[in-house]
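Complex record, two chains
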Amino acid sequence: MNVISVDGLSRSYGKGSTLVQALKGVSFSIRQGEFVAVVGASGSGKSTLLHMLGGLDKPTGGHVHIDGEDLYGLKEKERAVFRRRKIGFIFQSYNLIPVLNVEENIQLPLLLDHRQPDKTYINDLIHTLGLDQRRKHLPSELSGGQQQRVAIGRALAYRPAIVLADEPTGNLDSANGREVLELLKLAVRQYHQTVIVISHDMNVAAEADRVLRLQDGLLISDTYGGKGE
Amino acid sequence: MKSYSSLAGRYLKQQRRKSILTVIGIILSVALISALGTMGQAMKDNMLSEAIYENGSYHFAYKEPTPDLYTKIKDHVLVERVGILREGVHTELPSGNQIQVDELDANAIQLLPIHLDKGRFPQSSNELVAEAWLLNQLPEKPQLGGFAELFSADGKKQRYEVVGIVKNQKYSQLEGKAHAFTMLTGDESAINARSTLFLTLKPGVDISIQIQPFSTLHTPFDTNRPVLNYLGESSDSNLNRALAIIFGTLIGLVVLSTVAVIYNSFNIAVLERIRQFGLLRTLGATPRQIRHLVFREASTLAVIGIPIGLLLGWGGLWLTLWLMTSSGFQILQMEDFHLTFHWWIIGGSMATALLAVYLAAWLPARKASGVSPVDAVRGAGSIVRESYRKNRFPSLLKLIGIEGSMASKNIRRNRAKFRITTFSIIVSITLFIVFHFFTQEAFKLTVNTNENDRIAFEVRQTVYSGDEANPNKTNDIVSPKTVKEIADMPGVYGVYGQYQWPNTQALVRHDDVDQSFLQKTELALDDVNWNGEGKKVVYSNLTLYDDARLKEAAKYLISGTADPDKLAAEDGVLIVQTVKPLVDGGRKREQMELTRYKVGDKLILMMGVTENPTKENVREVTVAGILNQSPFNAPYSEHSLTVMAVKPTFAKLLEAVAPEQDGIDYGTSLIGIEVALKDGADPEPIRQKLEDIANTVQAGRFIDYVSEQQKARNFALQMQIFVYGFLSVIGLIGSLNIINTVQTNLLLRRREIGLLQSVGMTMSQIRKMASAEGVWFGVIGSFWGLLLGAGISYFLHMQLSNVQGLPFAFPWGGALIACGIALAVGLLSVQGPLRRMAKANLIEELREEA
């Protein structure tokens, strides 16, 4: 079953002589439980694609369907609520809320929805992420790897349809980076999550079930387990 | 954490310093608004009580009424109470003074300004109340419970028992005429041509509307204008409208500055966290939820700040007044001052403050909720896009080198931030200038200050015109030695002589009469011909100034000299040519110039009662000094030129008065003395001494207004305390605003400053750059603040002119103070953040995400 289907997606910035076409009609679909890596050189349109998938930015053409819902057919507010419930984000720079502790940061998407968090699930998540001892710590009291684990926890808290990770290992050393990748793979296995990772890191691509390669705003290859489709 | 909205509280705690500054801003503003409201209302209440104290509480009066009229108004459905007064016949006293026993009914006692000091009011037609000073002059010298024989209202001698003593009144003492009051019996039968009816309307009746129908019932009809004015029921609504506009403008300015303070701190707090708001958006927070967060922060600050502000405003005022009363002051010249508590002021201040807080939080909230999540997640660095504007003119800042030119670029890099910063500085400066101007004007309007304030006692001699027994020159009332003795007594500030005032008119060249004076007053001055030239005849008050008076006069000099020797040597005189005539058909007074003399001009005086100038009655003197107001008596005359001469000059001028022309042989002898006291002096020994002197002088009178004098001085002092209290709070709010703006402007650029350091800018260069920015914001703010402040001051001045006209004086004082404070605060407020930056780790700063 397709969780994401992208159809003729394009995005351009500026106009006239400063017109930049970041995405030029990209189409693909992703099934539930896939671990997909999007790779490409700087400026190839990776981040733009991620923003489009996350409903953060508006495309200039094409459609994105997530869980059967046309993401850009929604109103601004509906899209925010959709994002809250269906999409988890992980950023290179962690982007935790500095005034909230580990547990609160993880629960935040649920709180924004005025929901009481499922204690067992959250505890399980914290345990899986190895943050049991750090529950009450503020982000400033954590190492980079720990912060990124909190960010993963936050992305998974709502059991979203998809998890989007933008260079999740970019700021980490190789040991911590590997650990984060393991956790993401675990999420795919244990919670049957769909994970899409953007990365320069070829290790990430090697771990993925499927690799989408972008160049100059075009999808130039789509490989499953190292084999082209 | 129960809900995402707890984030608001966390943010406030995290930014404790800024939150505290914002709360202080709210507290000060609320305190100011509520204190301003309370004080304004208290002033109005007090002016009303004062007006009632002086004029009585009646609304309308009818003179020469008929019994029919009395019945009609007594039964009138709108009338609450009617009082009758019947004037008596006066009785001449041996001292030359007069007493008149008026009859009053019980209602009139309530409605008229009669204030019992001791005893009780009369209950029958053979009891009376009188002023204490007068009782001593009656042949029987009765005390409370004593008896006096006086003419009754029907012209027969009657024996009265003194059952009460009413308070001494200055004017009755000066005029030598006093009223005593007895009980009126037999209502209607007492109503005749010597009666007056006084009435009040029932509460809730619109008095101003009833003036017209009541005036048609009978003439002469009169209204108690001062009281109706303060009740807001005058037919002439100018005063109330002016007061409403003035207080409205002032409160509006305070609100504006509150909005600026709070807006600034919110805006900065939001800008600092804009990435976090963006992040919340990526996590699925709706714009509404983000706005809600910002408003929740605002509400929290308001909930903390507003009650404290109200408490501080009301409590501060209460404490000030309490301290004043317990140290013996009488507040606002009132016998009994209560700070009236009005719910509408508390409610109004709260509503205004809440409005200001939400208004201030609205734009930042919108900005926070509108932040694009893409921008927020797009790596580190400031996400506020800045568009650098090229300067149209080369900035003066470039003169101080690279730091200056960096500063000038920094100032202009972001239009919105530039506007916010200058806006709040401008508001602060405007606020200070306008308040400074207004309080000074209000002070000038409510407090007449000259040397008369200090005069507590007078001893004078009655000089009768055409007194056959005394045809020749009067002698000095006391010798110079006695004057010196009094002057040397502890607590005496000065002893000033009183002399005779001969009739004097000035012959003024047409060009020397101020044209706008003639136009506005519509006064027709007589024309005469003197030495072949047409002159205008201007009434003048010529007085003799002794050395003691000249010493005080020197304080009021605008130009020239008040040196007695110089004046005597060149026949010089001092003049006051500023007057305060009635204009606008008698509706208000306006201060203006009567003539345009300069020091050194010749002044031609026509002496005595005469209409035609002749060689005999005209003398020429020189204008040696010009004063801005009279040092003694009324500061400004209505439309006369005030001329002050020293003894030799005065004597020469007297030679031109035709002998015994109006029955008086004018001379330069001392006919009375005025004694001024130092503040806080014990008046008792001086009173004793002067009373003794008065008793030894033939037809001598001792006048005691020490209590009135002390009240007047206290009032002036209190006004000053309030004025400077208000100004300090305003200055504090303004400074807070500037500190907030300039500091946050700098703190937001921590990372950038780290960057500048990393490329080799030294901390002292950065300090120079940042200081230049701070000062430059002060300069720009001062420039516009000055213009706006002067503009609004002029607007207030126009409103005040509806009450009383004063010339507009550009508010230089307030302007200089405000601009000085702005520059200093601008300069000082960058130093704290800079010191912190100097201590911080460069790498950390660079790493830090904006």
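Note: Residues 1-50+242-379 of chain B form one domain.
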